Amino acid sequence: METRAIVTSDLIISLIGMPGCGKSTVGAQLARQLDLKLVDTDGLIEAQEQQTLQQIMDGRGNAMFRAIEEQVLTDMPLFPSVISTGGSVVYSDKIMGRLRAASTVVYLRARYETIEYRVSLAPHRGIAAEGTQTLRDIFDERIPLYERFSELTVDCDDITPQAVAETIVGQLQ
Question: Residue 99: is its pLDDT beyond 50?
Answer without folding.
Answer: yes
